[in-house]
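Hi R.,

Here's the chain you asked about this morning:
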Amino acid sequence: MKNDLKYLNSSSKKYYCDSLFGEMDTNSIDEEIKPTLEKICKSDSFRTIFSKKGNHDIKQRCFQSYIRLAYTLNGEELLKQEIIPFFSNKYNINGSSFTCKWNIPRIQIERAVTKDNKGAKWLTDKNYFNISNIEFRLEGGDDILHNNFWNDLGEKLNK
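And here is the predicted structure, written out as tokens:
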């Protein structure tokens, strides 16, 4: 599996930061999590590539927050040794569930830029997800728990 991995490098770090700020400019990202995403973007080890802050979902009757992160080789070690254990211990409580999923690089269908997708790279660039990444997902809990989750993401992933 190691041969399938593609880690962040200086070029891809810049690309994902530029993509994030492009989406911020089009107001495609929840205002509440922008400061956290900006902190992560300054990290040497991580870049956010996809995210959503939990809101009450009528169908599922629970809050959901998630973030997908690309990482460097050093970031992978930090995830395994420090970050995943921290979130697993802190956010699997009182009916809430924290999970993480390692994703291998993949090429997706390329879409044309439209007024609806506002040129978001995660939709228009077929190679956007062609990097190793991990998804952190928090389900359940309440707004306070999700706010704490996003605050902790900003602190723990700013390495």
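One quick note: The two ends are 25 Å apart (CA to CA).

Cheers,
M.
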